[in-house]
Specification:
Blueprint (H helix, E strand, L loop, with lengths): L8 H18 L3 H6 L6 H14 L11 H14 L1 H4 L6 H10 L2 H8 L10 E4 L15 E5 L4 E12 L1 H6 L4 E7 L9 E7 L5 E6 L10 E12 L3 E2 L14 H38 L15 H28 L5 H26 L1 H4 L5 H9 L8 H13 L8
Parallel strand pairs: 1-4
Antiparallel strand pairs: 2-3, 3-7, 4-5, 5-8, 6-7
Helix pairs in contact: 1-4, 4-9, 4-10, 6-9, 9-10, 9-11, 9-13, 10-11, 11-13, 11-14
């Protein structure tokens, strides 16, 4: 039976609509919010919020009408601008965490505010100065006050995407990863929902970044931050480090990445395609034709570079769609999500760097957006698990090795 890579009508419709948004509400503002890093891009936020609430689009962190469609739409929006995409008014990663690990009641409580009212954001805070790729080394603590039946959170989180927006707009929230017992390792890690306006949590600053400057990347400090008992996602039981293999709390939190990594891969594909499209348009304008039917030995260096860029992009896209389709089918995609993320991170870095090179001095200048796309690209090789971590996950799954054996 032949394999078809054609998108279904719903995905095609969503693709066209997102491309129109990218052209109309993103590209015109790309340079402005690359320069004015910490300003809220209302020229993009308001139309996106109106579209989502007006059409009844699911803004609850779940895939909606299919994860493949989500990835297709994400590619289009990041073709427009990856930084602005991360400013989309939605639950973002925080919503994915609630959807993955929360109860039906928690999903309704924390995600329903995103269906009405003013724009709002969700975020997820994992990273700490000593806990980046090693999430099990989290030092932020959560202690139960039995008198009030509240969790008391203390610690500092860094590099929290949309953390500032989530905590400064009514209805927003941040999912905080914290440990109930440091000696339990990953078995003690749980996730807690902290809503906007909660005393004891504050934004102490936002990072100045190489790329995706339109997004806010916040540092959060929690000092005796109290949240209700039912703001813990999953169960409160703690398993010791040597008995944490079956712990659903940590696994539920980590399952967020199985859904988010294909989306990050789609982001990378969108940025890479933006750079590749621009290069091809410029070559066409200069009268350079890509001879796809000629053997490599007869092609120019530019032709071979462009064809290689196209191959890298398509490989990343197909791996992304594969990982997304497995989610739609209810299949475990831990291996495939990491494969897609790793490949897309490498591909977009290579494609955007080559685009700057092929365009020469104009490509390196701020007269064009190509240098911005190169800066935006690199983060896709870092967040949601670095290139090295994702390759390690792929190796573990293929070889069937545990994390204690293959580190």
């Amino acid at each position: 039976m032949p394999i078809s890579f054609d998108l279904n009508p719903g995905s095609v419709s969503g693709q066209k609509e997102m491309h129109e948004i990218a052209v109309t509400h993103m590209r015109p503002w790309s340079r402005k919010y690359d320069v004015h890093e910490h300003e809220m891009p209302w020229e993009f936020v308001n139309p996106m919020w109106a579209r989502a609430t007006g059409k009844g689009v699911k803004l609850d962190g779940s895939p909606g009408d299919g994860m493949v469609t989500v990835c297709v739409q994400t590619e289009e929006l990041c073709w427009g601008d990856a930084g602005l995409y991360l400013r989309s008014p939605s639950p973002l990663l925080g919503g994915s965490a609630v959807a993955a690990a929360g109860t039906p009641e928690q999903r309704e409580k924390f995600l329903s505010p995103f269906r009405t009212g003013k724009p709002k954001w969700g975020a997820m805070a994992i990273t700490e100065s000593q806990a980046g790729s090693d999430a099990a080394n989290i030092q932020t603590t959560a202690v139960l006050d039995e008198k009030t039946n509240e969790w008391v959170l203390n610690g500092t989180k860094i590099f929290c995407t949309a953390g500032d927006a989530a905590l400064t707009h009514e209805g927003g929230f941040v999912v905080i990863w914290a440990t109930l017992d440091k000696s339990a390792g990953r078995g003690g890690i749980k996730s807690f929902v902290v809503t906007a306006g909660t005393p004891g949590i504050k934004v102490v600053g936002c990072e100045k970044k190489l790329g995706i400057r339109a997004s806010d990347t916040a540092t959060l400090v929690l000092e005796n931050c109290r949240v209700p008992y039912n703001h813990l996602l999953g169960k409160a039981e703690v398993k010791k480090a040597d008995d944490a293999k079956g712990d659903k709390g940590f696994k539920g939190a980590m399952a967020t990445f199985d859904a988010s990594r294909p989306i990050v891969a789609a982001m990378a594909v969108g940025v890479g395609r933006a750079a590749l499209d621009f290069v091809k348009e410029e070559l066409t304008r200069q009268g350079v034709k890509i001879r796809y039917d000629s053997p490599p030995t007869q092609q120019t260096a530019i032709e071979r570079d462009v064809i290689d860029m196209e191959a890298e992009l398509q490989a990343a896209r197909l791996l992304t769609w594969r990982a997304a389709k497995m989610i739609d089918r209810g299949q475990r995609n831990n291996l495939e999500a990491s494969m897609a993320k790793a490949k897309a991170g490498l591909a977009v870095t290579k494609i955007t760097q080559k685009a700057v090179e092929l365009l020469g001095p104009p490509g390196y200048s701020q007269k064009l957006l190509v240098e911005k796309w190169m800066r935006d690209a690199k983060i896709n090789d870092i967040y949601e698990g670095t290139q090295q971590i994702n390759q390690l996950i792929v190796a573990r799954r293929i070889l069937d090795y545990s994390s204690s054996v293959l580190r």
